[in-house]
Specification:
The complex is a heterodimer of chains A (534) and B (443). With 534 residues, chain A is of the alpha/beta class. Helix content of chain A is 37%, strand content 10%. In chain A, the strands form 3 sheets. Chain A has a 7-stranded mixed sheet, sandwiched between helices. The chains are: A alpha/beta (534), B alpha/beta (443).
Chain lengths: 534, 443
């Protein structure tokens, strides 16, 4: 009927699962405040927890029969539970229905655009779930003898090599469980490296644009954080870096492109400064999706890199994991990498190579978790690398950068007055806008814009990060989005701004069409209710 | 699109990358493959693995071959659970947030501790995270006392993770497969930060927390217990003994083996440590219309807010695996969790007796056990394992790989998937293998 609805079409059509509730109507375009009409019984029902749906005596599980003679007194009474744990009691249909209904209260990547900066929400190919679920992978015990786990070890070895090639660093440990875990591994490697050289360095440098995990990791690894400033082009302030670099500095942790989405053209000089002081250079791989096949952290001078397989290599994020955070390192760091390490041995008697777990690594920092890492994640990411190959990975990065620059240009056109780029430069795979002018001119904040986007079926960008940009929006479209989606997003942003010019309260009170509206987060923190009263 | 940007070429977009660091050649990786070929390649690799579907396996030692019910596959494959990021926008993440809340409720119930987070990576790193909580809680205390019955991966992970904390690790010896209470008494002092135990421990022993916990608490140390959530269906929960932090590996709750991951770690504690907890916590609240809802709460503990002062650096955890955990617990239900525990207890007792009756096999200890027990073989363990494997039986884990003092030890796990017939077959196969190996080495 209206232009508004035409333009919002792609997003609205894509968001049926979340917005299909009867009794809810989208906001009207001509200034009337959107209203919630009715609340259906199903909507009320869906905030009930599984414990609240429990009925004594109901069950899904049928226990295998006891086929051995029953013995009494196997456990001392004082070590026995006196009352059964109060788990829910439901039959299978009700359990399935409960969780399916809950699922409909989630927005997800398979349903709509998810430009969450720094998170690389690219498509998760469906093949990956199929190959990860093969019984040969899914039912393989982690302590199976390596002779009978050759397929898994070979897969890991091949993945190590592929990741090493992408990073430009020869040695890879797959063990860390997530990016933050990879960071911890990296800083512990740095500690081990310096200690072996008889040096006690106590400080680690992190730029003020860094992900929060960087400083948190530094503290956990027993170092002191020293912040390095950002120059007016959005790169590392090299003078500040020089001033803060000394023989007390163990490492500089850097993201490049950084969290502003900008590639630091001074990277060679930065590497020089850090290495001259005897420190190591750590690459936070959260933004690796920008540069595959174009440049490599190893070539930039980094000693240690972590990958986020759940970002660059498309492991589905699961609503907060699982991920995996393998690390790649240079020759001088290699002796210290976590154990065990997957190695290939050539028996040399005409037989084929074998794959083994090498525990005999006396200078290793040791394990950082149980077993061999998140193998199921490795299967998916290796499937991705096999599918895309050399050209495909490069094309993925190039398209990610193209999409980000295109969306930045489109937004400059549709919303540039109120949401200008924080740094007016070519961006890499993501970019930052500042909502400062919007706040002053229209009276709505970045948070309001983000909440209003929910009504249009878009996941908002990352907001209020990086910290040094006022009212920041960090937007990462990824390579798997079409031009039409990017256009629709730019137009919806413009529409929300136009609406705010007429009626700022529309955004300030958004969202309207979601299963719940703005939630009392302060109250939740003040009086924490973090489990069901049973 | 380039025209809209005002660029001539893709190369122009990469102009900030200095000449000196450009790769300038294609990545040295194979060409991309069509989906059919990728499937076939990975299927062929998978076929090289011998799994718990291919042999009768008694391997455990931290991960166990429990049945994963089909409804978990079905629910986890839903895009709405599989593909979202961490729930930063609660209005469109109520499903995931409510799952976290239900999960926290279930973990609190199992552990007997009132506060649970929404998951950490996995078991051993959860132990290290608990150590970090202890260090932050009482920084002046600098000694960790670690039972030798704590999983070797947990002991090593704690040691690796804590190198920068200024804490020293001392081991508590075992006596007849259980943590030696006298050794604990002697080691305790006002400089002990935390005591680390496992329940049941790595050798399967149900440690007597009634003895160990009060001693440690009296010395002002935190007690951190890695526990098996499934065994907690019949075991008295750690919170009942006064344990401060209960952590563990969640794989047994509805997660596949996956060669060791992904699974999840759980982390539960007391109210007093709520603001020192690592990771995400979901909390209940209301929206502006008064409707019930859930949010990530107490985020001022976390790295994205608190940065270098955060209680832990964890960001991405294991939400999807924790969802499998809570579905599994709902599937078992109140009665089923107990029935499963009792079944494991009975079959394990049967297996323990059946193996003890085999010539050349002796019990390694006499402590109470639930799902796993240790025996000593009068033969080379690796050779015996190989002989059994050739007969389609994986008899368990060679303890000497991690605990050299048990060079002849074998750790045997009995899940509900191993029937009496399987156990009888294990006894026969193991007996024959031990006998054959003894012949090789004349006494």
């Amino acid at each position: 009927m209206t232009k508004h609805e035409d333009r919002a079409e792609p997003a609205a059509a894509a968001s049926t699962s979340l917005h299909a509730d009867p009794g809810v109507e989208r906001g009207q375009p001509d200034g009337d405040r959107p209203v919630r009409l009715t609340e259906t019984a199903q909507q009320r029902d869906r905030a009930r927890t599984i414990s609240e749906k429990s009925q004594p005596g109901r069950r899904a599980f049928v226990a295998p029969a006891l086929d051995v003679p029953e013995q009494a007194g196997l456990l001392p009474d004082h070590l026995r539970r006196s009352e059964p744990a109060r788990l829910p009691e439901l039959a299978e249909p009700e359990i399935v229905r409960h969780y399916n209904r809950l699922s409909k209260r989630n927005f997800d990547l398979d349903t709509g655009f998810y430009p969450l900066g720094s998170c690389t929400m690219k498509h998760n190919p469906k093949l990956h779930e199929r190959v990860a679920a093969l019984p040969g992978h899914a039912r393989l015990h982690p302590l199976q003898h390596p002779r009978r786990a050759q397929g898994a070890l070979r897969l890991m070895w091949e993945l190590q090599n592929a990741l090493g090639e992408v990073a430009g660093l020869p040695h890879v440990s797959l063990q860390p469980s997530a990016g933050s875990h990879g960071e911890l591994a990296g800083v512990l490697l740095t500690r081990a490296y310096h200690e072996e050289r008889g040096e006690r360095r106590t400080k680690v440098l992190t730029p003020d644009t860094a992900h929060g995990t960087n400083p948190a990791t530094v503290t956990m690894a027993g170092f002191e954080v020293v912040k390095v400033g950002t120059d007016d082009r959005g790169g590392v302030d090299v003078e500040d870096l020089k001033a803060k670099t000394s023989d007390e500095v163990a490492c500089l942790m850097l993201t490049n492109p950084n969290t502003l989405g900008l590639f630091d053209p001074a990277i060679e000089e930065i590497a020089h400064v850090v290495h001259d002081a005897g420190a190591t250079l750590y690459y936070d791989g959260a933004n690796l999706n920008a540069v595959m096949g174009r440049t490599r952290p190893g070539d930039m001078g980094f000693d240690i890199v972590h990958f986020n397989l759940h970002k660059t290599f498309t492991q589905p994020h699961g609503g907060g994991g699982p991920g995996a955070g393998p690390i790649a390192v240079s020759e001088r760091i290699e002796p210290f990498i976590p154990r065990p390490q997957v190695v290939r041995r050539e028996p040399g008697n005409g037989a084929g190579p074998t794959y083994e777990l090498d525990y005999d690594r006396p200078r290793s920092i040791g394990r950082l978790r149980g077993f061999q890492g998140n193998f199921g994640v490795f299967v998916r990411s290796y499937a991705y690398i096999l599918s895309l190959g050399s050209d495909g990975l490069q094309e993925a990065s190039e398209t990610a950068v193209l999409n980000a620059n295109y969306l930045m240009a489109r937004l400059a056109e549709t919303a540039g007055e109120h949401l200008p780029p924080a740094y007016d430069r070519t961006c890499m795979h993501e970019f930052v806008l500042t909502g400062g002018p919007m706040k002053r001119a229209l009276g709505i904040r970045t948070l309001d814009l983000a909440k209003r986007l929910l009504d249009y079926g878009f996941h908002p960008p990352t907001v209020y990060f990086p910290l040094l940009v006022e009212e920041a929006l960090l937007i990462e479209p990824t390579e798997t989005e079409t031009r039409e989606t990017l256009d629709a997003f730019a137009e919806v942003i413009a529409e929300i701004l136009a609406e705010a010019a007429r009626d700022p309260d529309a955004a300030r009170s958004a969202p309207y069409t979601t299963p719940v509206r703005r939630l009392d987060e302060a109250g939740a923190a003040k009086r924490p209710v973090i489990r069901q009263a049973l | 699109m380039l025209a809209a940007i005002g660029a001539e070429s893709i190369d122009e977009l990469f102009a900030d990358v200095p000449e000196g660091v450009r790769l300038g050649r294609p990545l040295d990786l194979p060409e991309g493959k069509p989906e059919q070929e990728v499937y076939r390649y990975l299927r062929d690799l998978a076929a090289l693995n011998v799994t718990t579907e291919d042999e009768v396996s008694f391997l455990g030692a931290g991960m166990y071959d429990h049945y994963v019910p089909a409804l978990i596959d079905s629910i986890l494959s839903r895009s709405e659970f599989l593909t979202p990021y961490t729930p930063y926008q609660p209005e469109i993440s109520q499903g995931g947030l409510q799952v976290m809340f239900e999960y926290q409720t279930a973990i609190s119930e199992l552990t007997g501790l009132p506060v649970s987070n929404a998951s950490v990576y996995e078991g051993p790193s959860a132990v290290a995270a608990a150590g970090y909580l202890a260090k932050l809680h009482q920084p002046a205390r600098t000694r960790f006392l670690v039972s030798r019955g704590l999983h070797p991966h947990s002991r090593e992970t704690l040691a690796s993770t804590s190198v920068g904390w200024g804490t020293a690790i001392e081991e508590l010896a075992l006596a007849d497969g259980a943590t030696d209470a006298d050794a604990l008494e002697q080691a305790l002092g006002d400089d002990v930060s935390a005591v680390f135990l496992q329940y049941p421990n790595f050798l399967g022993t149900v440690e007597d927390l009634d003895v160990l916990v009060p001693a440690a608490k009296a010395a002002g140390a935190l007690v951190i217990v890695q526990c098996d959530p499934l065994a907690l269906g019949i075991l008295r929960p750690p919170g009942d003994f006064g344990v401060d932090v209960a952590v563990g590996e969640g794989q047994t709750l509805g997660n596949r083996l996956d060669f060791g991951g992904p699974s999840f770690g759980f982390f539960a504690s007391h109210q007093a440590y709520l603001r020192r907890m690592p990771g995400r916590i979901a909390g209940e609240t209301t929206d502006v219309d008064g409707r019930r809802g859930f949010v990530l709460t107490l985020q001022t503990r976390e790295q994205h807010i608190r940065r270098e002062k955060a209680t832990h650096n964890i960001c991405t955890a294991q939400a999807l695996n924790a969802l499998a955990g809570v579905i599994y617990l709902s599937w078992l239900g109140r009665a089923g969790l107990v029935e499963l525990g009792e079944l494991m207890l009975q079959r394990t007792a049967y297996a323990r007796a059946a193996l003890a009756a085999v010539d050349g096999v002796e019990p390694l200890h006499s402590q109470p056990v639930v799902r796993e027990f240790a025996v000593t073989l009068d033969a080379d363990v690796d050779a015996v394992v190989e002989r059994c494997a050739a007969e389609g039986v994986n008899p368990g884990y060679a303890l000497g790989r991690d605990l050299p003092e048990f060079e002849h030890g074998l750790l045997v796990a009995i899940t509900e998937q191993r029937s009496k017939a399987d156990i009888d077959r294990l006894a026969r196969t193991l007996g024959a293998a031990v006998a054959a190996e003894r012949k090789q080495v004349p006494a």
